[in-house]
Amino acid sequence: MTSLATGGFANYDSSMGVYSDRPHLLWMASFFMLLGALPFVLFIRAWQDRAGVLWCDAQVRGFLRLLGWVIAALTLYRVINGEALFTALTQVTFNVISVVTTTGYASDDYSAWGPFAVVAFFYLTFVGGCSGSTSGGMKIFRLQIGLIMLGNHLRSLIHANGVFSQRYNGRALPDEVVRAVIAFSFFFFITIGGLALALSFIGLDLITAVTGAATAVTNVGPGLGDIIGPAGNFSTLPDSAKWLLCIGMLMGRLEILTVLVLFSPSFWRK
């Protein structure tokens, strides 16, 4: 239930690590976490004899390619550091999908895999799944639109008189969509930065404050470090930190701008 819903609760304190000796269970959970991070409306179209619609969607292709490249890189990193190939592939696949889909399972303490893995998982905290899924995070389509905007901006610097259209998924990108992505991204990182600052004011260390803020707003689950990392939990944090993290989780789940609108006097006058 929590695999498909990308909820992440497990029946044991060690999360899905209790099943590390049964890799087929980790692979099955990975499959359903992956399904939960795809746009549900596309499943309806696929059910209507249009199975290819999933791969035709730019967001799904980008999401699967990102997972493929990250899993390949981290698997190679672990094999180079002495891990058996199948074990490395199983653990990397499960934990990468868990973090990117914001499920929050952990089958191993990936913060002990080495500095490259720690930084990679920190970056993956922000990604999220596809729009229209049960996952949180920034969502893949916003990252893709950001890359399109960056590419067009670089081309305009090279070709000052050039005119470049912005297209996504075979359609022209309206200006309001671009503005919405920029506004969301700005408030997204401002929220994480402000929450991390508040957590550090309470007395949490840098890693706990920053990754705790990031994992709360992105709704991932585990952070990094000895306290809230994949091998730890949030139970030892002070109550004030838990309240702040609750606010961060709610803002992240409602995608921040929706919450900010509630504090606008003009919204209530209408």
Keywords:
270 residues; mainly alpha; 2 strands; 61% helix; 1% strand
Contiguous helical run count: 13
Q: What would you call the shape?
A: globular
Number of domains: 1
Q: What does the radius of gyration come to?
A: 20 Å
Helix content: 55-70%
Low-pLDDT parts are none
Quote the distance from N terminus to C terminus: 40 Å
What assembly state would you assign to the polypeptide chains in this entry?
single chain
Largest sheet: 2 strands, antiparallel
Order of the strands making up the biggest sheet: 1-2
Give a structural overview.
This protein is an all-alpha fold and 270 residues long. It has one domain. The chain has 13 helices and two strands, in the order αααααααββαααααα. It has helices spanning 23-36, 40-47, 53-56, 58-80, 85-100, 115-124, 140-158, 175-202, 206-217, 225-228, 239-253, 257-262, 265-269, and strands spanning 167-168, 171-172. A two-stranded antiparallel sheet has the order 1-2. A hairpin with a 2-residue loop joins strand 1 (167-168) and strand 2 (171-172). It is globular. The protein starts with 22 loop residues before the first helix and ends with a helix. The relative contact order is 0.10.
